[in-house]
Amino acid sequence: MSLRLGGALYLVGGLGFILVGASLISNTVNQKVVKFIPSPSERISSKNGYFYDFLLGSALGATWIGCIAPYVGFAVITAALSGSVLKGIMVMGIYGLGMGLTIYLILSSKDFADWINKKFLSNRLSLTKEKKAKWEKILGIVIILFGALMLTELTPLKLWSALFEKLAKL
Prior knowledge:
The chain is mostly helical. The chain is about 85% helix and about 0% strand. It is built from seven helices and no strands. Helix 1 (about 1-25) packs across helix 2 (about 25-35), helix 1 (about 1-25) packs antiparallel against helix 6 (about 130-150) and helix 4 packs across helix 5. The two termini are about 35 Å apart.
């Protein structure tokens, strides 16, 4: 059962990476993705789209499960061993606040970086449209490669695992 779930997560993650990469490379794909999945800010400001919010949260959870599970486990064990319900609630509340604040800062960082660039750097870090398009295409290719590597986990090649095993030995 867990092998099927792992395979499904690799499939969804790999295809998601490929779709995101393709949307950075091709304006046509980008327009179709934007039309199909409106931006989170539109959903938040319009106060609807619970299904979209659920899908976004599920994708984030599936993507982060390998990275975040030890920390969630530690927080749950700490809360369970704290000796009182109130202390357990405080531990989990602080953990949740930290996660929420982290996500908020990540989502806000682009606006903050733009503000710093305009306010203190006189727009010296701004990219021209041509340079930005070039970097987006390079990033799109890299993301597509990562997606393809993730999809190899569904085959006997398992290049994704091999890559990270080699990186772990460095």
